[in-house]
Structures are given as structure tokens and as C-alpha cells.
Amino acid sequence: MKRIKSWRLSLGWQILLGLVIGIILGACFYENIKFITFATNLGDAFINLISMVVLPIVMSSLIVGIANMGDLRKLGRIGVKTLIYFEILSTIAFIIGMVISNLAHLGSMVDLNQLTKTDISTYLKTAKTTHANLGSVLMSIIPTNIFASLGNNDMLPVVFFSSIFGLGLASIGEKGQVVIDFLNAVSATMFKITGWVMHVAPFGVAGLIGATVAKLGLASLKPLSLFILMAYATMIFFILVILGITSRLFGFKITEQLLVVKDELILAFTTASSEVTLPRLMDKSVKLGVDQSIGAFVIPTGYTFNLDGSAIYQGLAVIFVAQAYHINLSLSQQLTLLFVLMLTSKGMAGTPGASFVVLLATVGTVGIPTSGIALIAGIDRLVDMGRTVVNVIGNMTATLVIGKSENEFNQETHDRYVASFKK
Fold this sequence. Notes:
By secondary structure, the protein is an all-alpha fold. The protein has 20 helices and no strands.
């Protein structure tokens, strides 16, 4: 007898199905407090499950990778190269956002009387209490208590400690092998748990998007629909053209990267969270031929410094709001905005609601009312879905580029893994 093959949806399709179901339920239960509470809790439970395994994976993988590397000068070179790459790409993203917003001039078409302001008092408090300078960010990288950093989910201090610990393990030779074996087991266990957690991803996605639609309602999107369309068009341009050219310069194809990480991009889009993709992204970077030490360093660091999607959004939003208030910004004012955005985006790294905090800390420098940011706060969740996708694919491209530039890349492994997705 022939064995009948079981048919099942792939993870990507399951997540998309969860997205559709969430939108339908959100529309049906518009402003229903009980549904919003239930859906929010369901989505948060999934995010928390992923957050639970992220730092153990980063820590164990990075320590093992650095221990195997065992070279302080090489680690320093990779760190400097990675940060320079991040700065160049994020600056390009800022410029593209501002240029397209200037060319489209959609802000002047918006009637401010049609827009509902959203409460942004929390972001205003954060903007006032956060010191927006690069020096404070660099100082915050060095942890005084690594366990406190783990408890607070502070990624950069964990990356710093793991790198130093890995170098320490390498320096003691065979004595450190038992620790390396233990951390290899921890990493494998965490990746296994991640696989289990991903089975509930469609439910988490349905909850997150359902709560968003139930709060906003579909009708509230109409006044700012042009801004949403402009944001998504700009992000698609950045992925296909800017990341496409960058990939080509190093012998990669952006279309192949999109194919390999499509499930992670769908997950990032539906949850608006980069963190949920981190474990699978690190795993796939190794399968794409990048050395483990490179992926374990670049990807977690990129989650703080390589936010291309957020940079595009900030560049678009600041010009859009100015146009909505009919404020004509001169070239010198826009260059000032660009400079301030570049500084504040690094100074706010890791701050909750960082994109809004950056905008609030920036717009006042050229006379744009901070209250204008409240006008686009309502659609932030929907735009955040798109900018998260850009952040995720940007970090994968960065990992491949840094791996290739360091000769820590296996082309055969890469081609074989990509071919498995094309079949």
C-alpha cells in the first residue's frame, strides 16, 4: 500500500493565517475591552516565551564563537568594521527617508483636523530623562553586574561580557574546554526550545494584530493611509535597491536572502518585534556559511545599532510632520535634522519606544511642534511592522557582508542551503 503523505502548512503560512484571523477578530471586536485584554495577553505571552531564550542563546553562542576565534585583535577589527558598516547604512536610510518625504510632499495633503492625537506622555518623559549622546551609550556597554544586565534584557552589555569571557576561555586552553562543551549544550538546548515555542507563533500573531485592530479600528487609518503607503514603498526600495546593491558588491543576492529568511520576515512583520527572530536568524546565518563567531556578534549588536527601518521611518516622519504644519525647512535645517537624527538614534539605543523618543528629541531643533508626533503615534504599530522587516533583513545582510570581508564564509555551504529553498 502507498503511504499517504500528511499535508501541513509551513510556519510562514501558519503565521499569515494567524495574521488574517487576528485582523478579522479585531474588526469584529472593535473597542471590546475584554477581547483587547485577552488578545494582548496572548501576544505578550508569545513575545515573553521568545525573550526567555534570546539572551541564553546569544550568550552561549557568542562565548563559544569568540573562544574558538581566540584573537583579541581580530575581535576588535570585526567590532570596528561592524559599527562602520552600521553607521554607513543607517545614514543612507535617514537620507532616503528625508529625500522621498520631500519629493512626495504628502504631509501638505493631510488635514490636521481629521487626525486624532495619541497620548505620548510616556515618550516625552523618556526623551527628557534619557541622555542622547554616544558617550553614554558606549559607557552603558560595560556592565557593572552581568546578572542585572541579563535580568534587564540589556543586549549590548551581554555581548560585551560574552566577548571578554570567550577570550578568557581561549586564553586558558584545554582547561576551558569543559565550559565550552557545556555552553554548546546550552545553545543546542535553547535552539530546541525555540523550535517548540515557534509552534505557538500563529496564536501570538493573531493576538498581537487582533488587539491592534480592535484598538484602532480600520476607519482610523484613512487619514494617514498616504503616509503608511509612502513608508512601505520606501522600505521596499531600501531592501531591493540599497541592500540589493550592497549584497551584490560582496557576491550575494538579496532575493536569495529574502527566500531563506522569509518565515522570519513574516514573523517580524506580524509581531513587529525583531527579538523574536533572533534565535532563528543566528541559526540560519551559520547555515548560510557564516562562521558562528561572526553571526553571534553581528546580529545581536545589529539589534541596537543597525536599525535601518527605524532610520527610514524617522527620516520620513520628521519631514512629513513639518509639511503637515506647513513648515518649510531649508536645506541647512534639514542637514541639521540629519545630523541630530544620527546622534540621537545612537543615544537612544535600547530605549523603549526608541523611534518616538528619537523624533521627540529631534523635531524641536528646527521648530517643529512636538505635539505633531502625537498625530502619527496611532499608526506607529502598523508602520513598525514594516520597519521591523527592514531591520531583520538588514542584519542578515550585514552578517553575510562582515563574514565575507573577514574570510569567515563558506560559499559551498551557502549555495547548498540556498538551493534547498529553491527546490
